[in-house]
Structures are given as structure tokens and as C-alpha cells.
Amino acid sequence: MKCGKCATSSFYQYIYALLSQLLRTAVKWFMQLATGKSELERILTWQTKNQGQITAEIERLIDDGELVALPDYWKPDEEDELATRIVRKYCPGIDKKQFKQLKDTLRRSLSQIQGYRELCDIVESMRKEKYDPENEQHEKRLLKLWDLLMPDEDLEGRKSEQWQKIGFQGADPSTDFRGMGILSLEQLIFLAQYDVAYAQSILSLSQHPSYGLVLILLPHS
């Protein structure tokens, strides 16, 4: 009986996805017929000061496979050439002034998308990097966290029960960086360095006898 329900649910999901795709295709065809512009051209000519909105729509077109002339990956110095090629392909019939405007808008979006992807790669790399007590840089960053959160208390030693005051489980905090790797340490440092009041309020709450919200758990959640 349960398998039958699963099959029925999958069938309806398939029908829904198919109808959604057909509807979207029909809307795109109608809009191009009514405006004489491709979807890309309509996006690039939006009257908005928010480049991020345009970039989000460009990224959607890329994810949907609408911009087949665009490779999956590109280098920053290729963005102008790519924008030129794509605007020529998908925005025919525009004059030189419009061409330059659309190309520049698309180039900025490609730059933002590439920057976002690079940032995601960096963050993922940090997440995968395990804390290494033998790594001098890791150790320096850990001690910086203590200095930021406990500026009025000297740390008696690298391994000390004092670490429990800011939420670590034991005397050696290096054992607590597991699921999120070195990224979790950098998140804590960023919070303690650039939002001091908020970090101290969380730390104070973590030391409350009733509430006890552990600060160190935040980057792992």
C-alpha cells in the first residue's frame, strides 16, 4: 500500500514538473512575441539600480541551460569576450549603444557570479581543512580567539581548563573543530572581532547558570 502511494506521488510530481516546464516555455514564447526581445535582453534592460537582481536572473538562466554559448567555467579576463559573444547571439537587432550597455551589464553579472563561485570554493576548502595543532597558523588563530573573547584574562597555557569558559569541551580546544574544520574557528574570530558587543552578549549568556547557550556550538549548527 505504501509503495502504491509513493508511485502515485512520484507520478503527480512528474506531471507537475512537466506542466510547469510547458507553462514556462509558453510564457517565454509569448513574452518574446509581445516584446520582440529574448529573455536575456529583457533581463539586461531592466530599469533597476540593483545589479544583484539582474545577476540572480542571469545565474538562473545559466543553471537552466538557457545560455548554451556560455561555458561552465571561465576566467576573469574572459568575461568581456564572453559577454560580447552572448549578447550578439541572444540579443540580435540592437544598435551599437544598446549593445555596449547590455554587454557591460552582462559582464558585471558574470564577474559577480564568478566571484561568488570562487568564494564558495574558498569556504568549502576551509570547511574541509581539519584543525592541526602542529600548524603554527592554526594555533595563532586559536589564541587570537581567546584574546578577542577574554581580553581581561590571560591564558595560563595552550591546554587549560580556561577554554571551557568560552564553551570548549575540555582543556584542549583543538579537538572540538570537527564537522566544520578551520571554517568554524574563522567564523568565531570574525564574530568576536567585528561584532564585539553581540559576541560578548552571547558569551555572557553561555555562562548563565540557567540558559547556558554554548558560544562555540554556534558555528557548528
UniProtKB/TrEMBL annotation:
InterPro entries linked: ELMO_dom (IPR006816), ELMO_domain-containing (IPR050868)
UniProt domain ELMO: residue ranges: 137-221
GO molecular function, one term: GTPase activator activity
Residues spanning the membrane: none
Protein name (Swiss-Prot/TrEMBL): ELMO domain-containing protein
